[in-house]
């Protein structure tokens, strides 16, 4: 039955994983890609159709042509970067996920509020540069892919860097956040509105240039945090119950704060773990993150619960498939 | 036939891997978990039964109730932390492994003796702080999970830190060990008393907070070594023969030093590799280590020898299954 | 039909992967190993035959004995180290790959020329120490496994280290190369002359001692770059098209510069990625690299294109199998 549906996403981020997963669950697949990347997406046999555009602002035109097909769009981490938040909200094609979550994800004040009210530990944020306890990291609102982060460890550098940062962030607002000294761990969740169960699909850490090379260089270099890849991790089992609880708290609170549907599908808590084994959540991503690309054939976590290879991309398609079978697509589309 | 047996472990460390492996080999599974973690272990369909307790000191009472069932207990790295060494030794339930090894594993003098007599290179240990060549690392006896380690690079810091360390380690004895400058590699072995063959199951490195973040921070931070996860590695093939030989030497020597049964089942050599490609073994763990949790579906090493997914947890269950079939349980239980 | 052929390699580097892959594709396998490592290779059931020698200079004698068998030799990264470039060229056994590529791979001037003419960005090289912009890395021609690299960040150190380096590199020539500050990523390609398609098989980063430990040590240590292992990575999807293009450019240019057959089979571009998401290629390896040993059961990349576990070693055997079936062995052997 799901043969009648086409799973669609934009060509970037985790499109390959999403479309491979959709294909494995029996869906037709379609990628909307920049013309210059059509030849790239043609390499993959699980992509049934490619629609090209010159720039992503042409998306609304593409959308019109797709309206007569049984389309379900899977958003990923580049949707907001490419279409803007408004572009996402205006999309008329059936969209996997809850668009209301976008307002809470992309407003740092609302996001912090959501996490804190859910009982999650987050780093302190400083409004006044005179209150700052060092080290801190300066981040622009809506910074993507780790670009435009600055680590500062003293007042002099802070005062010096704020103006150049404000310039670099092109007038966007920024926050001054406590820098937590600990190791990063990104936890990939999937919450099913059909089974009402939360799953941990996998975990990773980002591979960031140049900061992940600093430890290899015996002289001083200013760190940059541009994400160019990911590497796999597992978490100590005694900390795993808390990892699940954090995910459940965030989902639960989203239903109170956002709307009754709340957060569902894939999401990620980006944590820093300190030596007292405490999780600090520095960010929530309310959709599939690129770290899941490591696990096309499943992860140590999905391998615990599935007797078949289960990526997050495939898990999304599985959810849609079950919703179609149970006639509950309304629960997972927006 | 193995359907009649229940594989049991404590809820922590590598319990999920052990019980998933047991389930995959056709055993019934039971986890003994803190009451507050029952809901966590309920998430996993391969766990047939959960017995709750308020604290692990209640274990002897649980044990009495389990005596009439066909139980086999699989110890893991948290057994000594939770039950104490005496608690492990007093256990009357059939226990996979040789309990006599515990005395050699948890006494640093005996452990060092064992490794050195086996021909393994270990870091120097200093009895007198005036003899110390820097850098050194101070470790308490029985430190678990990397907590309570101090790296010291000069005499002044050593003299200053020893008292605060002695306090932090709460009167436990400590050692001053040569700090080997090189990269860590943890080798996961399995020795079968049935086939008399040693296998390398997988390899990892620990993910330690905050020390594994230091390289990302351009200012000075004191290192901590608290293990919160693991990441996968493979070793250069030209060094693999030596990795096997080290494992075999340790097993062989254990039969001379400990008793005729010696070390068997899963164990781990925790190595540091220096630029001259020399292995220094900083520790032996005589049971399953948490780094194996990365390999629920097998590792590049188990994939060389098994045509099916083979975690260390599953390998243990396989050994028990074969022992049952061959009526040789006495060779692997204590 | 491929049952009649034996896949042969030298016992080191990626021999296990190559022979396991050959076995999985239905070939007989043979390893030529040092006598002291025969017991090691005997551990692996997918190796049908082991031929021992005391030292690799005995290889020509072995070769004579093998001439009457249907042998195909798969070279790997240790072939030049063990047999010398001349030893490789003189080999009369059927050899998978194009030996003409050796001249371009092992001459740093020719290699740099090849890459630059292919439109690949490479680090600057300095002929005159007075022109140097720091940091730079000094590398000897033909340095293997990362041994004999020196990182230098100022003129004084450069002047001091050059003589000691020249001594350490035993009269071999050396280059002074711009040190690119960024994260390493090694891309494993396979180009098929049969399908004329380029595949990305997997990616890794090297695990080097002691440089990959420096970030864990809060005092100054001189870096060494000796490769002792590998860890897995995936690349940001938006950079993947460029990764494919780089591979295709290198293959295409090889047909113009080297000969009509050009580069084929497995090869690796060793890249450094800077914060502006630019790839610098610091080296090309024109054969299977050891980083592929992580992926005995496939990688996130091979999992996208194959519905079965596909290592690079197995991919080589698959290519040979197809060539046998299509009577095109001449296209892939030298």
Account of the 3D structure:
3 copies of one chain form a homotrimer. Chain A has 10 helices and 14 strands. Chain A is of the alpha+beta class. In chain A, helix 1 crosses helix 10. The first copy, chain A, is globular and about 60 Å long. The two termini of chain A are 21 Å apart. The interface between B and C is large, with 41 and 42 residues.
Overall geometry of chain A comes to globular
What percent of the residues of chain A sit in helical stretches (DSSP H or I)? 25-40%
Structural class of chain A: alpha+beta
Oligomer description: homotrimer
Are there runs of chain A of 5+ residues with pLDDT below 50, and where?
none
Query: First CA to last CA of chain A: what distance?
Result: 21 Å
Spatial order of strands in the largest sheet of chain A: 11-10-9-13-14
H/E topology pattern of chain A? EHEHEHEHHHEEEHEEEEEHEEHH
What characterizes the major β-sheet of chain A?
Answer: 5 strands, antiparallel
Tell me the fraction of residues in β-strands of chain A, as a range.
25-35%
Largest interface: A-B, 41 and 42 residues
Strands of chain A, count: 14
Q: Average the pLDDT over all residues of chain A and give the rounded result.
A: 94
Instruction: Provide the gyration radius of chain A in Å.
Output: 20 Å
Count of helix runs of chain A: 10
